[in-house]
Amino acid sequence: MKKTILLLLPFAGLLWVPLYNRHDPVLLGFPFFYWYQLAWVPVTSVLIWMAWKTDKQS
Q: Do 8 and 1 meet the contact criterion of CB atoms below 8 Å apart?
């Protein structure tokens, strides 16, 4: 169950577009719309790793 939640978090964070469909705040010249999605790339990698570790331990 924990593994499923970890793998569904990126979907929940990225499929709800009105959450991040805005310009501000800007980070390093990137509007929020872009850097929010780019930030999910390493976060998703960590979540997949955590799901793998959870699966490996059980």
A: no
